[in-house]
Amino acid sequence: MSIRTLDDLLAEGVSGRRVLVRADLNVPLDKQTGAITDDGRIRAVLPTLGALVEAGAKVVVCSHLGRPKGAPDPQFSLGPVAGRLGELLGAPVHFATDTVGDSARATVADLADGQVALLENLRFNAGETSKDEAERGAFADQLAAFGDAYVDDAFGAVHRKHASVFDVPARLPHVAGRLVLREVEVLSKLTGDPERPYVVVLGGSKVSDKLAVIEALLPTVDRLLIGGGMCFTFLKAQGLEVGTSLLEKDMVETCRNLLERSGGKIMLPVDVVVADAFAPDAAHDTVRVDGIPSHRLGLDVGPETVAGFSAALSQAKTIFWNGPMGVFEMPAFAAGTRGIAEAITKADAFSVVGGGDSAAAVRALGLDESSFGHISTGGGASLEYLEGKTLPGIAALEN
Ligand code: 3PG
Ligand code: MG
After folding, report:
1. The pTM is what?
2. pLDDT at residue 252 above 90?
3. Cβ contact 258:266 at 8 Å
4. With a 6 A CB cut-off, is 306 part of the ligand 1 pocket?
5. Which residue has the higher pLDDT, 275 or 192?
6. What are phi and psi of 66, to 5 degrees?
7. Average of pLDDT values for 234-249?
8. Which residues, 6+ apart, have CB-to-CB distance to 81 below 8 Å?
């Protein structure tokens, strides 16, 4: 595959040129205060932005945040992100209060060489996510008018066939930014010939979200450890009662089938932490998986499970982890996720953490980021990459 990179663009010279950068600044916000709770995705795009600033480009950054419905919605404004980005860059970021309207046009026109602008949320415009090519194309035309060249550094969004990801690169000279390049380099090691044993840990709430990646990984991995909310559908498939835990009834048969075909590669929890309610202060206990009371719900994996999973991880040479083991945002249900994360850091293995949630968990639990091989900024994107799917944002760069 032939993808031009930021270095190719820099070699051409970008001083005085407008460079449109698609970033993934979709950061988690505190539900009450709206404050940014994890700025990892903002920091991840700094190498690309810094290089462009240094080279004297007029840098126009665009991103989505959350899932607004194609119209302005203040709770999803990128305004706070512009502030944080400016702090991290050490220079003010000129914020446009619309995406392609008067404010955006004026902000871009006023940029001096080496300055950075951020446009308001792409998804305030129906054209960004439209399934209709013409509607997406019309929005892409407006965006493309802000750049003389396009850089995709939004790894977390490369699996979306959206205007800013897929249609803009068809309209401008385009290159991959530093983050996209590094992510693809690392993930291609996992799909290529990973050093063995190759152990994958999956968590998170829904089996249905992970089904495709489980199917794709089963033939490749040596062990697949499953925790998080999704483990209860697997436990049910083994004939166990799961109380009021998360359960995808229509996936039980699928899970049973996966377990049958897995050749013993799938490891499930042997104990879980069950609570009276989904609340930080709910009464809770650890029980064996065959003893989950009918009125209680599982919110974390238990210590014996952590020990078993950790033993499997300690043998691994390659590890991929996506999805928390429990409700790590509540301290009472964080031990499983912490235990697994610590086991990964201790293993003498090349480890990749995939995903918004697991990456946020690593930082929220105060773990040392540098003790992981790579922390991906893409959740869905890294999973779809491992599934071997064609990612629209990468395909668009290849042309
Ligand atoms: C993510 O957080 O997964 C990416 O930013 C993509 O967002 P999306 O799932 O809303 O498209
Ligand atoms: Mg997502």
Report:
1. 0.91
2. yes
3. yes
4. no
5. 275
6. 65, -160
7. 98
8. 25, 27, 36, 42, 63, 65, 118
